[in-house]
Design a protein that fits this description.
Elements: E1 6-13, E2 19-21, E3 27-29, E4 31-38, E5 43-47, H1 54-61, E6 69-74, E7 77-78, H2 84-89, E8 91-95, H3 106-116, H4 121-134, H5 139-142, H6 152-164, E9 170-174, H7 182-199, E10 202-207, H8 210-216, E11 219-224, E12 228-233, H9 235-240, H10 245-251, H11 255-258, E13 275-276, H12 282-291, E14 296-300, E15 306-311, E16 332-333, H13 339-349, E17 353-357, E18 363-368, H14 369-376
Length: 384
């Protein structure tokens, strides 16, 4: 099921002391006169400092918290008029600590909502297998494991699969990747973006990290203290024209660098490398590498997957190519990798070019540091 529009109409939540501890001990901030519309199939990221009402806003959608005033509409229907249990079963919910049931297997966790909805066993089993494969979890290997036997990233993927189990049009995600390390977090972000390309759900996503908001959101809602909406706009609008000093300070002074998150490697014109396979004629490969703008030869296997680099001057004048002495391949980038992530990976590895690959890890082309940094010098209207 595709996404549906979500609308907040002058929603206010006031606690007795303006803040009240939540069930998990965290603070829930008040929300003041919040009005915004999330179009069907888009990701709206709520971002702001601690205590600004992000999680409160999210929990009012599925009525874990009831608003003091205003309306929240899903596909034109007021959530206050729906049965809370039925409402929650129709909305996917992913939280930072995942919340998997520890005494149930991975497969049983994913199947929990379909079972509550009365799905027949075979339909439920097919859905579990489909979703685990969709999020990159092998159902045969992991289906019978328990959450404690999984890594943090694996548990988070299972949490996403469980949220999607009943094919809800709306997903609520409360700092879903905040508890994993930066490398796993980046991978999970990219996988969610890839899933969203296929599924087109409406997603409300909470984070305190402006970089994550810029990367993940079609819309970004910057919230200030006391639960007020400071600015709502696309990532490009937030970065180019902050609505107030508060938004400018929250976004940070490196707004130009953050704009690299607005474009992806697939937006660039890739450089075709000089490639060869072990066993190819060395003399021909040496000549092609020497003529290339990057005087290196990229060795690939029979599936065009990168094996390593050979400097043109080090390639023999005759005989057959071997992988002996080849340097490790550059960082592997995907078409949906943001330019900011790509530049960071190249600088971390201290290399001048990254290898762009498809989902089978076959080489599509190269991206250089010079090409990435040149984007920063383009005028705003020249960016993709």
């Amino acid at each position: 099921m595709r996404g549906v529009p979500l609308e907040f109409r002058h929603v206010t939540k006031v606690f007795a002391n303006s803040q009240r501890p939540a069930a998990d001990g965290s603070a829930e901030g008040a929300v003041n006169d919040l009005s915004l519309v999330v179009p069907a199939g888009q990701v709206c990221v709520l971002v702001g400092p601690s205590g600004c009402g992000k999680t409160t806003t999210l929990r009012m959608v599925n009525r874990l918290i009831e608003p003091t005033a205003g309306q929240i509409l899903i596909d034109g229907q007021d959530v206050a008029e729906k049965n809370p249990i039925d409402l929650r079963r129709s909305i996917g919910y992913v939280i930072q600590q995942v919340g998997l049931l520890p005494h149930q297997t991975v497969a049983d966790n994913v199947a929990s909502v379909p079972r509550l909805l009365g799905w027949e066993r075979q339909r439920t089993e097919r859905r579990v297998i489909e979703l685990l494969e969709l999020v990159g979890i092998d159902p045969g290997e992991y289906g019978d494991r328990y959450p404690a036997q999984l890594s943090g990233g694996e548990r988070q993927r299972v949490g996403v699969a469980r949220a999607l189990a009943a094919d809800p049009p709306l997903l609520l995600m409360d700092e879903p990747f905040g508890a994993v390390d930066p490398i796993v977090r980046e991978r999970l972000q990219n996988e969610l973006l890839h899933l969203q390309e296929q599924l087109a759900k409406t997603i409300m996503f909470v984070t305190h990290d402006i970089d994550e908001a810029i990367k993940m959101g079609d819309l970004v809602a910057v919230m200030s203290q006391r639960g007020r909406l400071a600015q709502l706009g696309t990532p490009a609008e937030i970065l180019a024209e902050p609505a107030s000093d508060f938004v400018a300070r929250f976004v940070g002074r490196d707004r130009g660098l953050k704009r690299l998150s607005l474009s992806r490697v697939g937006d660039l014109e890739l450089i075709e490398p000089a490639t060869a396979r072990p066993g190819d004629d060395a003399a021909d490969a040496r000549q092609r590498a020497a003529r290339h703008a990057i005087p290196y030869l990229l060795l690939v296997d029979d599936e065009s997957r990168p094996l390593g680099w050979l400097k043109a001057a080090d390639i023999p004048n005759d005989g057959q190519l071997t992988a002996d002495g080849a340097d490790a391949a550059s960082p592997l980038l995907e078409l949906r990798t943001t330019l900011k992530d790509a530049l960071s990976m190249l600088l971390d590895e201290d290399v001048l070019a990254g290898i762009v690959v498809d989902r089978r890890r076959s080489v599509l082309g190269l991206v250089t540091v010079d090409e990435l940094t040149s984007v920063l010098r383009l005028p705003d209207d020249a960016r993709g």
